[in-house]
Request: fold
Amino acid sequence: AIISDVSYVDYCWRIVLGCGAIPGIAALYFRLTIPETPRYTMDVEHDVNKATSDVANYLQKTDTIDDNDGPGNHVGVPKASWSDFTSYFGKWKNGKVLLGTSMSWFALDIAFYGIGLNNGIILSAIGYADTHDADFNLRAYNSLKNMALGNIIITIMGTVPGYWVTVAFVDKWGRKPIQIMGFIVLTVLFIVMGAAFNPLKEHSIPAFIVLFTLLQVF
Reply:
């Protein structure tokens, strides 16, 4: 009976995962049904008439122009090729932009997912993972409840404020300065937490939580 009760947790995470797919399906529907931009129509589909019609419809906010009135005027725009790619990005002034962007994104993923994958360790360190209830069902319930509360606390204290601080100041500070500042602070915080992880966890949980929250912010 105990195993049967706890097994319902399996249905819970499937329902949660399924609900998370609903916004994605809605976004996919709207993306597939909206008209393409005139630039896409002209540069990719090479249909000048349809691109002109799309621009007119957008500016006039009417559907008076039919896209199917007459054959499309297709233009011979050269197709992109690997030789174009290598010749363009083979120049250092162009290649350094692609390299810097991709490496910055790579470094961001290491920091972001590195923190996220260690949430369980963090929650355990601050007492929001393990339970010691004698009843098996109660222990399973409290464990899930504690993990949910702990993740909510982490998100509200760190992730959400970090997003909104960036939204508020990114245009004033500039995108490059805000990114460099974030990487520098993350480097310092990772070094501190990596070097003093056990002492912080054993002797100063408040300091531990503050540092981890700052990681989420930056």
